[in-house]
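Input structure tokens:
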């Protein structure tokens, strides 16, 4: 069993909890002094930083939400002077505005360490060639995996996402032994490799996959087709990026690096903390991050904690694979998409040609997500002029791409052709089975 930081990863629970308590108290004080949103919420509850004595008081602290990132856009939640921030990343918010997170030099170090712990737990070593096929850029996947692999001393192949033929050629030519990407892209690569008949030219042995939900069945298929062991990695931009948690070689739940992140499962309706083992909403508190700390951040991911200790010897709690969300966020080809973003684009582009009646249809064909948006034309615009219709479809497609960062197929459909519902409009039809 290999560890990046054995002392910390196998720290006795009592010692770990002491460390967490110390760090939590410091973090609460820092946030109270530097983050207005947090201070106001604490004041509302009549809480002072000195009322928090350790992890036993965590449940007394106020929650934080994705909406806060929008309300304080772009830097209002940062807890350090901006001169100390060395990097920002961004991800989709519930409407057009992106959410922005920041990192100090120490935060980047901590991020590298968290990703590296997951990679080492999955068996990655300095001898490996790590092909990073997560997107680089605002998305945290590419640079996150990159930093972790570099810290281990592996050889990083920073190819980023897309261009499947080039991905496969690179794997063959450069002798990639580790692949990092979304599980659906891994499946797609696997199908292409099978079709091209080049599996025997590959040296892959480990896959580090995440950023979207995937099933045990999908894991088995990817492992068979690519001839590797596939491991799950979890994270979210607001808390860190990839590496908040990850699987060890037991492949039985993801260890949350609890010296940096406190995990809770709550009842999403009442906010009450649930006992380990029960399913609810995942909530994280980052106790060491400097630039963008979060206190009791509601992830909206539905999940549970595995109460039993792991056979690998790590003492840090494991979370099960998240298997849904409490909001309407879709993850399409690894990109977070909110229906409200699509609605916003449609309202903006409409000069009376389209109605606000739309439907999003998501499916998985050949292991790739398909993304269709049907929009009703208005009675006035409805015409047989195909050219005009196609022009508007192209325009909406472009606008959606610039808002979401991925392509959708837009179809203008006849007036009143989208089924009306008697209750809530059914805006999303997700036919994927994960
Ligand atoms: O997806 C960070 C990441 C990159 C994780 C690469 C793993 C690998 P966001 O774009 O902010 O960050 O999206 C975060 O993605 O709240 C979950 O809903 C979902 N998610 C991430 N990892 C997993 C996973 C990155 N392993 C949102 N299983 C999260 C299921 C996942 N869902």
């Amino acid at each position: 069993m290999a560890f990046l930081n054995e002392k910390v990863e196998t720290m006795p629970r009592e010692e770990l909890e002491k460390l967490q308590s110390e760090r939590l108290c410091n973090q609460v004080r820092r946030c109270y002094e530097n983050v207005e949103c947090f201070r106001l919420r604490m004041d509302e509850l009549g809480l002072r930083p000195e009322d928090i004595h350790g992890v036993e008081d965590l449940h007394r602290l106020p929650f934080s939400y994705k909406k806060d990132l929008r309300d304080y856009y772009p830097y209002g939640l940062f807890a350090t002077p901006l001169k100390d921030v060395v990097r920002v990343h961004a991800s989709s918010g519930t409407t057009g505005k992106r959410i922005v997170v920041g990192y100090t030099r120490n935060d980047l170090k901590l991020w590298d360490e968290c990703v590296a712990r997951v990679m080492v737990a999955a068996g990655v070593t300095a001898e490996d060639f790590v092909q990073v096929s997560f997107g680089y850029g605002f998305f945290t996947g590419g640079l996150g995996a990159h930093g972790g692999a570099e810290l281990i001393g592996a050889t990083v192949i920073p190819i980023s996402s897309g261009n499947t033929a080039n991905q496969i050629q690179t794997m063959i030519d450069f002798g990639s032994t580790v692949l990092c990407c979304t599980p659906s892209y891994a499946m797609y690569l696997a199908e292409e490799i099978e079709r091209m008949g080049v599996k025997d030219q590959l040296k892959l042995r480990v896959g580090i996959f995440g950023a979207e939900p995937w099933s045990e069945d999908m894991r088995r298929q990817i492992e068979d087709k690519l001839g590797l062991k596939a491991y799950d990695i979890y994270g979210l931009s607001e808390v860190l990026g990839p590496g908040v948690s990850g699987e060890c070689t037991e492949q039985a739940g993801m260890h949350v690096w609890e010296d940096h992140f406190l995990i809770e499962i709550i009842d999403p309706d009442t906010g009450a903390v649930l006992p380990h083992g029960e399913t609810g909403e995942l909530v994280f508190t980052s106790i060491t991050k400097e630039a963008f700390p979060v206190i009791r951040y509601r992830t909206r991911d539905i999940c549970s904690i595995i109460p039993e200790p792991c056979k690998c010897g790590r003492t840090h709690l494991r979370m099960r694979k998240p298997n849904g969300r409490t909001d309407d966020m879709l993850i399409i080809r690894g990109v977070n998409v909110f229906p409200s973003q699509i609605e916003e684009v449609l309202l903006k582009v409409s000069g009376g040609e389209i109605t606000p009646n739309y439907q999003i249809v998501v499916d998985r064909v050949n292991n790739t997500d398909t993304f269709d948006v049907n929009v009703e034309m208005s009675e006035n615009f409805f015409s047989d002029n195909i050219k005009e219709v196609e022009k508007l479809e192209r325009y909406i497609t472009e606008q959606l791409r610039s808002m979401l960062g991925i392509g959708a197929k837009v179809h203008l459909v006849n007036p009143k052709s989208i089924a009306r519902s008697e209750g809530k409009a059914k805006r999303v039809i997700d036919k994927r089975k994960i």
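Residues 91, 134, 140-141, 210-213, 232-237, 241-242, 299, 301, 321-322, 325, 331, 336 surround DLL (CB under 6 Å). The radius of gyration is 23 Å.
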